[in-house]
Write a structure and sequence with these properties.
Elements: H1 2-11, E1 13-16, E2 19-26, E3 32-37, H2 46-51, H3 53-57, E4 61-66, H4 83-96, E5 102-107, H5 109-120, E6 125-131, H6 137-151, H7 156-166, H8 173-185, H9 196-207, H10 209-212, H11 219-227, H12 236-244, E7 249-254, H13 262-272, E8 277-280, H14 287-290, H15 292-303
Parallel strand pairs: 3-4, 3-5, 5-6, 6-7, 7-8
Antiparallel strand pairs: 1-2, 2-4
Helix pairs in contact: 5-12, 6-8
GO molecular function: peptidase activity
Pfam families: Abhydrolase_1 (PF00561)
InterPro entries: AB_hydrolase_1 (IPR000073), AB_hydrolase_fold (IPR029058), AB_hydrolase_sf (IPR050266), Peptidase_S33 (IPR002410)
């Protein structure tokens, strides 16, 4: 099994900056190009690729899916996990596939990568789409902890854990991990009422080949916080600059993605604009699975 998985990696990867970077394309290369940027650090694109990439391509797009260097299937023991490293690889992908301009879809932590890349290389980006994307990190962590304190009054075990987390260095991998672990343990990332369609998508993914390559590099967050100075930022000033340069910013979020406060969602809506924002009902963090048809329809409407 390990040997076959490695062969699979090599078949679907190419050499960038001396490293094997996993990337797969879907659709006609003559169509508008979209690059999906996954969450993390320590994430990968397997869920999006296994459920949504081909369906998005079927809407008339050229979709590129990849795993960042050192994460997922892009094995690299020397990866630094910095934004600059991610930018270098994105530029190499554009060069490799002869892409002058692309639409970026940034999911979760990938939204920070996509935003900072667009701010630095606006000439390479035609549209920026934030999909359940992080943008004000400390506000997100504060909201998770404060909302849990309210919902767990009298629960000394949970309250003690929250108290412990609040005393940690807020610019540390440990602090971030504990915040998101608490959110996950309390179903902040789950849609409240799974539909028949979403259940099938998750089930098919878990039974398929992409789930078998759902690799998580546990060292990635530690190295990110060690090597990257911008490790707890608010990207909204960058988003405003991007809009001022004439690059459309779109935002699509799940109404039940509980890691974001109502005030955070309102602020990102104000930046994107009424016609460039949508809040999907019965939908949490993995909105391209929770409400896939609505997600795909909105992307097509915005870009077509």
């Amino acid at each position: 099994m390990k040997q076959s998985i490695m062969v699979f990696f090599l078949m679907l990867s190419f050499l960038i900056n001396g490293q094997n970077l996993y990337i797969k394309t879907y659709g006609n290369k003559e169509n508008k190009a979209i690059i999906f940027i996954h969450g993390g650090p320590s994430g990968n694109s397997t869920l999006f690729e296994g459920t949504t990439a081909q369906k998005l391509a079927n809407k008339g797009f050229y979709v590129l899916v990849y795993d960042r260097r050192g994460e997922g299937r892009s094995l690299d023991p020397h990866a630094k996990f910095t934004y600059q490293e991610a930018f270098q690889d994105l530029n190499s992908i554009l060069k490799k596939y002869n892409l002058k301009k692309v639409t970026l879809i940034g999911h979760s932590f990938g939204g920070l990568v996509a935003t900072l890349y667009t701010a630095k290389y606006p000439q390479n980006v035609s549209n920026l789409i934030l999909a359940g994307a992080l943008f004000s990190q400390q506000e997100t962590y504060d909201h998770i902890l404060n909302s849990l304190k309210k919902s767990h009054k009298g629960d000394s075990k949970t309250l003690n854990k929250i108290s412990y987390v609040e005393k940690l260095d807020k610019n540390s991998a440990e602090y971030r991990k504990h915040c998101f672990d608490l959110a996950s343990d309390n179903d902040y990332f789950k849609m409240p009422n799974p539909t028949k369609a979403s259940k099938k998508l998750y089930s098919d993914y878990e039974a398929g080949k992409f789930y078998k390559t759902n690799i998580r590099n546990k060292n990635a967050p530690l190295l990110f916080y060690k090597n990257e100075k911008q490790n707890n930022i608010d990207s909204r000033p960058f988003l405003k600059e991007i809009k001022a340069k004439g690059i459309p910013v779109y935002a699509i979020y799940g109404q039940d993605d509980r890691i974001f406060s109502a005030s955070q969602i309102k602020s990102i809506k104000n930046i994107a604009g009424e016609n460039h924002f949508v809040l999907l009902e019965n939908c949490s963090h993995y909105l391209f699975v929770d409400q896939q048809n609505k997600f795909l329809s909105k992307i097509k409407m915005w870009l077509k």
